Amino acid sequence: MAVSYAGPGKVEVIDTPYPEFELKDGPGVNPANIGRKAHHGVILRTIATNICGSDQHMVRGRTTAPEGLVLGHEITGEVVEVGRDVEFLKVGDVVSVPFNISCGRCRNCKARQTGICLNVNPDRPGLAYGYVDMGGWVGGQAEYVLVPYADWNALKFPDRDQAMEKILDLTMLSDIFPTGFHGVVGAGVTVGSTVYVAGAGPVGIAAATSALLLGAATVIVADLNADRLAQARSFGCETVDVSLGDPQDQIEQPRHPRTLCHR
């Protein structure tokens, strides 16, 4: 069973076949990928998955997502079957799966540019699970999912029992947390930095958390949602309520040490 896009504003739970180590035809699947073997993959039983804002864009009809597309690119699961070419994973392992699919072998992957892998999508560099115009690989909001190039694409948690105790937190590792972390690393945040995060949604909160982990001296988070701003303040951020005026003007004014502007 899986969650699929059924048209603007609609999703439905559908019956899906158990995955094989071969890409089958389906909504959005590139014809050149049909029949592509994936003996380098594993089949996971999905333990936990997230709903991304990108999924919401598709469901709301803002994209060219085809009806019937199985959604989901934030996957945490248990290995239930291992392809013949997999070396380092075994049945029973609990793993986190990055949202983008990459081969780990092309020049882009070797340069750590896995989001634009050259070998996984015949149309253009880059591929993702259950995502519009990204090759049509079956998504992870399903009972079972095939993960290709598993030795590269599946991050094994070293202690299964410990992982299961924190599984809802660890689910953030597939997309949300690394997106925020990558953003602040790319921005050059380091010890002593002053950081401004525009937006206190899940990725914004992950970016603010990451900035503090990297040693930022001050992290300012801006939003207009009071609950989100309160969440940012709960772990040490200063906040700006953008509904009350220009963020720059508010930041320049001396305020409460933990809150630059509040209701």
UniProtKB/TrEMBL annotation:
UniProt superkingdom: Bacteria
InterPro entries assigned to the protein according to its UniProt record, in alphabetical order: ADH-like_N, ADH_Zn_CS, AlaDH/PNT_NAD(H)-bd, GroES-like_sf, NAD(P)-bd_dom_sf
Coiled coil residues, start to end: none
Gene3D superfamilies on file: Medium-chain alcohol dehydrogenases, catalytic domain
Keywords, sorted A to Z: Metal-binding, NAD, Oxidoreductase, Zinc
Pfam families: ADH_N, AlaDh_PNT_C
Domain Alcohol dehydrogenase-like N-terminal: 40-151
SUPFAM superfamilies, alphabetized: GroES-like (SSF50129), NAD(P)-binding Rossmann-fold domains (SSF51735)
Residue ranges of every copy of the Alanine dehydrogenase/pyridine nucleotide transhydrogenase NAD(H)-binding domain listed in the record: 183-242
Cofactor(s) essential for the protein: Zn(2+)
Family: Belongs to the zinc-containing alcohol dehydrogenase family.
Name of protein: Glutathione-independent formaldehyde dehydrogenase
Species name: Microbacterium amylolyticum
